[in-house]
Each structure stands twice: as C-alpha cells, then as structure tokens.
Amino acid sequence: MTDFATLDTAQQTYRIADIAAAAGEDLTHLPVILRILLENVLRHAGEDGGAAAAAILAWLTHGRSDREITFYPSRVLMHDTTCGPAFVDIAGLRASLAEAGGDPKRLNPVIPVDVSTDHSIGVDVFAHPNAMKLNMQHELKRNGERYRFMKWASAALDNVRVHPPGTGIMHTLNLERLASVVTSVTRDGTVWAAPDTLIGTDSHTPMINGIGVLAWGVGGLEAESVMFGMPVTMRVPDVVGVRLTGRLREGLLATDLALTVTERLRRIDLADRFVEFFGPGVSALSTGDRAVVANMAPEFGANSGYFPIDARTLEYLTQTGRSPPQIELIEAYARRQRLWFDPEASPRYTETITLDLDKVEVSFAGPRRPQDRIAASRTVDALAAVLNNNAAMGGGEPRDGAVAIAAITSCTNTSDPRLLIAAGLLARRARQFGLTPPAWVKTSLAPGSPTAERYLRRAGLLDDLEALGFGIVGYGCMTCIGNSGPLTPAMANAVRDRGIAPVAVLSGNRNFPGRVHSQIELSFLASPPMVVACALAGDVRRDILRDPIGRNAAGDEIRLADLWPTGVEIDAVLATAREVGDYADAYNAAEASADWAAFEAPASALFPWDEASTYIRRPPFANLGNGTRLGRYTAAPLLVVGDDVTTDHISPAGAIPANSEAGDYLIARGEDQHDLNVFASRRGNWEVMLRGLFTNKSARNLLAPDLVPGTTIHAGSGERLSLRIAAERYAKEGRSVVLVAGERYGMGSSRDWAAKGVALLGVRSVLALSFERIHRSNLIGMGILPLRLPRDRRPQDLGLHPDDVIEIDALPEAIRPRAEVSVQILRQGSRLDSFVAVSAVETGLESETLRAGGLLPLMLRRAQSESELNSRVLSVDECGIRD
Ligand code: SF4
Questions:
Q1: How far apart are alpha carbons 526 and 506 in whole angstroms?
Q2: Angle at CA 439, nearest 5°, toward 435 and 443?
Q3: The whole model's pTM is what?
Q4: Which residues lie with the beta carbon below 6 Å from any ligand 1 atom?
Q5: Helix H or strand E segment including 148
Q6: Atom of ligand 1 nearest to the CA of 448
Q7: Over the stretch 405-443, which tens digit does the pLDDT of each residue have?
C-alpha cells in the first residue's frame, strides 16, 4: 500500500507520494536519483506501491539490481531535427491507422512536448552588423517547408508546443524557462506536487541535472512511445557517486572542470549508469558550473550528471525569473521529500570516485575526442602527435594548426553567464591593446538564449566582442552541430591549394573529425574566453598560457595573463549586468516572432503528404511492418566497422554534397545544387537519409581497405556498390544482412536516423563489442537486435570477407534481457568460427518490441486495440510557466 501525504505552501495544499514513509530509515542511504525514481513508481503504482518501492529499496543491498521498474517522465523535450522525424512517424502512423479504419486522433501525445527550433540555423554570415538577421533569413527560407510541418504538428497534436527559431538552444531554454524543478500535476481533481522529470531527444538533455531535475537523453522512437503514455522501462540503475572536494582555483572556469570530469569519468565504464555528484565541493560550484558539467554526461558516458537541489539552485531560479510561490514550493517539497542537498551526506553508491576541485587546471580537449583533455599549454604537443608537418607558422598565411573557426557556441558553455562575461572581459582588454584576429579566422558568438544579448549589452561587452568579430550570429546550435558555414576565403584557399590541416577552437562538447566542419578534422574544446584568445593568436601551435598571442601598437608582446579576467571581476560585472526581468522579456519577444506566425500550416488530423516534397515523405516503417527481424538465419556482412563509430559517421547531420547520391537525388528533383541544405534538415525524407548512410569520410568499411565510405562489396558478384543498392540487391535475392562493429558503436548524438537508416538497409542484427546507450535503444526501437560480441572477437581481427556467411540463432521466444545467442561464421561452407554473443536487451518491453518488429508497429497495434495508449491522461500545470 502506497504512502501518500499532503504538503502545504502559502498558496496551496498538494498531495505527495511520501517517499520518507515508504523507505523509512533506508531513505538516508539512497542516492537522490533513486529517491526521485522511488517517488515516480509510488505515484504511478497505486495500490502496488509497496512492491514497486521494494524493488528500488532492494538495490541498497548490493548497490545494483536486476529488478525492472517503470518510469513516467512528466514531459518530453525535442528539437527541430529530432521532432521532425518523430512527427513524420506520427503522421505516418495516423495515416496507417486511418487506412485500417481507426480514428487517427487516437494517436496523440498525453504529456507536454516542448520543441525548440535550434538545430538548423547556420553561420552563413559573421562579423557583420546584420549577421544574425541575415542568418535567420537564410534559416527561414531554407527550412520553411519543415517549419510549416512543425506548425501542422503543434496544431494537429495535443500537448505539443513549438518554440520558434530565435528562442535559443533547447537545453538553455529548459534551464532558463521550462524547468519547474518541482511540478504540480492535476489528476482526477487532485493537485499533486512531484519532481519535474523529463526525457529529451538529445543526448545533452542531462544539462538540466545541474538544477536538480532528473532527465536524460533518449532516441526519437522512445520519446514517441513516452509521449503516447508508455513508460520508460529500465533496470533499477547503477548510480556512480562522484564526491567533490575543495574549490576551483582563481582563473579556473566551469569548462575546465567539465573537461576534467569528462576525462576522469570516461576512464570507467558508465554505460547505462547514472552519475550523481555529492560532497562538500558541490556547494562551492555555481549553478552555471553544475549545468556545464552535467551537459557533458554523454561525453563522460553516463545517462546523467545529477546535482541535487540546494540554496544555489533556488538563487539561480530566482535570477531567471521563476515566481516566488514556485520557489517556495520547490524548497518545501525538496526538504519534505529529502531531495534537498546535504554536503555531509554520503549515500550508498554502486561505485564512488573522488575529485578534488583544487587540482583542476586550465584545459582544452582534443583534437579528436572530448575525453582527450590536455593542459592548455599542450596544444602544440597534441597537434604534433597527429600531424606530420611540424612547420612553424609564418609568412602571414595559415599553416597547419591555424585556427579556421573560433566559435563561442553550444549550450554547454554559453548557458553559463559567467563564461560569456569572461569572454567579453577578455575581448575588452584585447581591444584596448589593439589586438584583432588574423583574417583567416572565422569568428562567431551564438549564445544559447536571447537573454545573453541583454546582459552582454548592458555590461557594454557586446561592443568589445563585436570589435573582435564575435558579434552574435544567431541563437541556436550553429557551429556546434556543424552548421558552421563556409570558411574564410583565405582559409578555404589554404586548405584547397596547400592542403593544410587547420583547427577549430570552440566552446562546445564534441570535436569528432568533421563534426564542426567537413574540412576540419582537428578541433579543440575550450572555454569561451579561451576561444577568443585562440582567435587572436590565430593558431594553436604555441603555449597559449605563456607565449605571446599578439602585440600592441607599441610592439609590446601581449600574453594571455594580460587579458584573462579574475573571478571577482566576472562576478562584479554579472551582478550589475543581469536583471531578473530579462529572461521573460527576451523569451516573450522571441516567441512572438512575426516570421513564425506568417508560416501557414494545414489544419487537419491527417497530414496531406505531397509527393513532390523533398523534405517530408511518408516513412515506409510507420506501419505494422513485416513482423519481427528475429529468427534463425544466415546473413551476409553488409558492413564491418571498427571502434568509436559515432552516429555522425552512420547518419551525417551536415551539408549535403552536390556530388553525392543524396545530392543526385535532390538535384534530379529540382533542388538548387548550391543549397541542398543539411542532412539534419532532411530527416523527414527517408530517401535522402538512406543515401547519406556511412558516407562520412572517416567511416571505413573494413571488408576491403580501399572501399569508398558508404559502399560495400556484394557477396557473390564481388561488385562494389553503394550500401543502398547492395541492400536492395540482397533484399531481392531474399538474403539477410548484418552489421559488425567494434567498441562504443553509436556513440555521439541521439539521432534515431542512425538506426532507421540501418533498418532501411534491411539489417537484422548489429554485432558489436559494445554499444552506446541511446543508439542501442534506437536499434531495438527499429526492431534490430543488438548483440554484444565476446571481448576476444574484435571485428578488426575477425578478418571477415564479403563472401563469409554469418549464422545467427535468435528465435523470438529466446530473446530476453541478456540472452545468449549462438553465432557461427562460415567461409566457403566450412565453419571458420563460432561463439556466443549476448543480446544487448535490458527489459521485457525491449524484448516485446523486438518481437513486434519495432516500436512503431507495437504502438500502432496498441492503438488499434484501443489498449494502453491515451489511458493515462494528465493535465500538467507548470506553475505559471506554461501559460
Ligand atoms: S550540444 Fe550542440 S548540437 Fe547539441 S543541443 Fe547543444 S548546441 Fe545543440
């Protein structure tokens, strides 16, 4: 029997699921994350609350558990390039349901879904007084059809709210505006108070963990099922505790800490685990610091990087304009439910790590992975390790290591006002010394929200940044997601004519080769002021901490120490620059976009598909499908790849080249070959996405050393074909195909197209040494069985030939969490190898999904039978924020 109680604030009496009563003395030992999960199962379990609580409390015995729980997040967060395919799926499901004689409106979100329009805007124009306006014009022109579709979705579907272009990056919007931290939920006339929880179709969703909101990133398919009222099913998770001690030294910034945490935690296996920060060092961090660290949870490999609620959280919420009654509710609820942070507490964790904040140093990460942190002075060594040519800079032209892009970008760091103020102060000093970046550097400032402009302008720092080329180019992901636009002519010529290897320096969280720009293989992550410093230096072939980075008019050498602001200076400026009213004013102005209002959208429950559209096509998988992909079968290896294959490698997000299969397809349909837009904006068109698979130039098919990315060798004929054509050939021949991969397959972003595309190739199973969490779930969502290879079966060493046959015994009835699956490799009819792989399936619902052939057929079947869908109708009042 579940324990319920009441909580009184000055405004209201709330009903609460009483976790202290349910857990008793054990509550002290539970990590805060598990307290939130406990509340969730209690509130949703009704009379079964006692059993649900027992499943979580049993975790305390060993600090881990195999028990399965369900979790109902209170809301969903998406962005324009993940909501697009999700809404296209829903439009496709509605069409299939209507064709089968059902009511399409039965497929409707039952919890709030917020969509930010941030992932498409590019840096077409920079260092220009009208850069932001011009970039926004390009954005609206390029993406008009998609945006009209999003407007259709927000009108046709319940509970969907779209935040138009110019409202900022989803995670900043969530931090500054959407998150209520403690939410009130009205159910059957009773007003409940409960933790604000969410899932987001973006791997950096855990940024909101910085203010005590439990959230993590999921694939679009899982989000679709959650918005339709299905729970997230999961094992009671492992929770790794990171004990923070000490405090950051003078001059150190949140970025340095986040890169240090990423380096440290990436050394341990955090797959499918949650991280919670505790200990006295937490109190020494601002909420901005915490959010920057939490943002990089996917880079350190965890589901979350959770910081509990404390006085600093309330201070931040007040500064960002949350109402006094809401602040009162948060504090009262957190204290009553023992979610309030106690620096002396030491709960039980699956594993505990200690990190001393005093030891953090000024850092970069790169040049190829975010976990490769280096001391800021060591960029020259990091470059030497990857470049053959060690020629020094000189002659006034860019050489290897020259900074092609210096971008203050990304939700990671631009959401923390201290970091932007620090960049502005450094720019101010540089300007006083007369320093400017060389002409080859492409400079930009793309804050996470329009609020940043207000405090930077009020402090007079926007003028200083603009003087150095760091004027605001827009509010969105921009360079961080690879929409960095063309390089400067000087740099483009140097790359084309002399083949130099330039670098990008950005305040983002990812630097995989080609992510930031297709011509840039080497990128360094650093704090916003460090980005400005590197732009001024023009290259990273120097000790940025000690070597001169420029000269003043008198010819004196200027070093970083002459420019770097102190913590006291940053805080003093911030105290006068920021006003509480800025947040609501800036967002309200952006939400009232006349351009957005001018988009006309169809008003109908069913979306009117247009055969001529190159953006939105009815997806071939949003229907009941052909049944399960499980079974006992033999398959050809369509593709064999090595370690660290990211979702960027699998399904690119960046520009669509004119000389590519996807380009050919679009040009044949009348699109301008000079402006084909980016793959991320075409995710509503499966034909385009299919043609982009594995075409990233770093994606190597190990079936032959000289295979062009995106191609394979067809077994039998030996012909070299694009993956799409080879897959079509195999399908016609009635032959199955599989994909073989190394460690961490599917790392990177949450994009479900990396799984949808592989499903369209007909792949029945992916055999990998290990999977990144979200991608593993996306594969299952598309009905593809992820199989873990034994540690001694590295794909690189298996020596697979195109003609080899892989025999897999995965009958539907045998597939359950971590089931053993026998695999044999045959060459010319003889057995070459045999081993046991393990199904990377974690829950019963995942097994059911695989048996149904994927989540979309499963949801459609449930909708047809009028079962669980729409049965859990809640009305969520986000305490005045949703009005
Ligand atoms: S990490 Fe980059 S791409 Fe992802 S939401 Fe943040 S800014 Fe956008």
A1: 6
A2: 80
A3: 0.89
A4: 169-171, 202, 204, 410-411, 477, 480-481, 508-509
A5: helix 131-156
A6: 7
A7: 999 999 999 999 999 999 999 999 999 999 999 999 999
